[in-house]
Amino acid sequence: MAKLLYSIKICLLDHQIGNLPPGTITTRHQVPKLREFVHFATLIYSNWWMTCSSATDAPWNDLKLIQCLLKYEAVNQIVSNSAVQAFRRQLWYLTTEMAPLALFSTKVPADERCALASSLLAIKPDKKLLAPQNRFGMGFGKTKFPD
Questions:
Q1: Does the pTM exceed 0.90?
Q2: Which is the most buried residue in 1, 56, 59, 121, by most CB within 10 A?
Q3: Spatial separation of the C-alpha atoms in residues 73 and 92, rounded to whole Å
Q4: Does residue 5 form part of some domain?
Q5: Could you count the other beta carbons within 10 Å of the beta carbon of residue 62?
Q6: What angle do CA 128, 131, 137 make, to 5 degrees?
């Protein structure tokens, strides 16, 4: 959060910084990239960062965040693609073991919780599982999220 606050200050004080000798604080190439970062962080990321305190809301928040990231492509395609790619590396915890947490979230609409509960109850295991499936390493590490 400190990086975001300092980036906002630099963007707000850009005219005063422009009066300083070149390269004192930023280069002329850094300011446009800094503005892109500030736009993305203030419009998209900070809202979801502030609401991530509850594990039961995590699946719903993450689905909404990825929808916002995909919509942000209309504003800045490069930043949106980069953010989606980075986000996909963090999807390992949105698996069958973690999806039931959404049943306890007050953010998930009631009809979607009912549909999720019905889907979970309809799943019948094929065989007796002795270890978690679809994991990296020995079977107890991070899950492999499907493409």
A1: no
A2: 59
A3: 23
A4: yes
A5: 18
A6: 145
